[in-house]
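protein under study:
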Amino acid sequence: MTFFLRARTLVTATVLVLAGTQFAPAASPAGSRGTTTLTLTAPVRAALRKVRIPVLVPTVVPTSLEVVGIAVDSYSDDEYSLELVASQACVGVKTSGGACTQASVEGQRTAGPTPSGYRPVTLSDGSKGYYLDGPCGMNCHGSFQFTFVRGGVRYTIVINAGKLAQALTIERGLRVLR
């Protein structure tokens, strides 16, 4: 099993480098009140500029998530997915929700109403968001989900074994890529 995982990671990393979407994290622990500040590298910006919807990028994350950088999972004209990774070894590697990923930030043109079972919460700008604190299975991947709509785009923050306070910290730190 270990051999399969290593081979998969190697192939995925090669695809990422060839696609030109590799980005290195630039995390600085100089954030305030238990936060880490994240910045994007030039290759990351270049990849995300190809997306036609407004791209919200996390600039601040709670230190409790132990995030060291950002990787692009996927992007197209109408959607994108960023992974917040917890290890320098994972930087530039498309992890697809693997052991490297602590959280993700996604955006896609709205595909309907908020799924049932989500609870309402007020966001930093006074608008409504919704969250689902799901069960934690074998690895807790995607157990906490937080979503909101702005300008016809649904943005989702997914945190492994996450908490609402962590999602709200990330939401307050989201900035439109310019």
